[in-house]
Amino acid sequence: MIVAGILTPLEDLLTWVLTNLHDTVGLTWAWSIVALVVIVRILLVPLTVRQIHSMQNLQAHAPEMKAIQQKYKHDKQKMNQEMMAFYKENQINPASSCLPILAQFPIFIGLFFVLRDFEDEILPKFPDADLDWLNLINITEDTKVGWGPLLIVLYAASQLTSSYLMSQNMQPAQRAMLLILPIAFIPFVLNFPSGLMLYWLTTNLWTTGQGLITRRLTPKPQPPPKKSSRTPPKAEVQAAAAEKQAVEKKPAATPPRVRKVKRKKGGSRR
Asked: What pTM value is reported for the model?
């Protein structure tokens, strides 16, 4: 497959990491997958920080974006142009909120191919290896086998929880999509190796814990000053206010004095 060929270097890297976690550290193959999640999520911390800041930035500008959408709701093309201009002026990148998920997707696919060929390429080097996790699942078997459906339930619950926590500041459409996708994926993941579902369950639990911590510790940012050309610049506003104040303080103009000419007494009469 083309995808498998492209991801071959990533598959080799994942195989090397899992092998060392099992052979050098002494973990079972299932717990090596859990440790792999921890390593990946630590490496993704910078992207996660950007994701949090991006969602907070979107929340801070939500009223302004809603006003633009209402103003141009009958002209989708104009609304998109105005929204793109607003994003640029206020340095907003909506895609930043999806970066951690997108970064993990190649790892998810690469691990799928590693586990698919696990028994043929890796297991022969470790004939006494333990493939079970908590005596419930075998990481190389399909998720629908044995206690695998329980893993599916845990996956769906953890995915919904993590999506709910991480989508608090997203737009309603994005949030709805994140909440619907976990349920939509269930028919497909039934045929995935159980080890792959163990990976996804662990990363969902990490995301849930991360969401709870960030909601408690991260302060909500104050809305930054507007940079949009839709509002007058700050200097012009101050100048207009100063001019108005000067006009109000200026005393009212008084009419010119009229000099009274006194007539001399005893003047000659004609």
From this structure: 0.71
| In a domain? residue 26 | yes
Angle at CA 223, nearest 5°, toward 50 and 226? 105
**Nearest alpha carbon to residue 188 among 197, 198, 175:** 197
CA-to-CA separations, 178 to 46, 170, 252, in angstroms, rounded = 22, 10, 66
Output the CA torsion sign for 80, 84, 90, 91. Answer: positive
Can you give the residue range of the structural domain that contains 156?
A: 2-217
Quote the number of domains for the chain. Answer: 1
Q: What are the tens digits of pLDDT across the range 222-256?
A: 555 554 444 444 555 465 666 666 655 555 555 55
Per-residue pLDDT tens digits for 50-86: 877 777 777 788 888 888 888 888 888 888 898 889 8
What's the rounded Cα separation, in Å, for the pair 167 and 173? Answer: 10
- Cβ proximity of 138 and 146 under 8 Å: yes
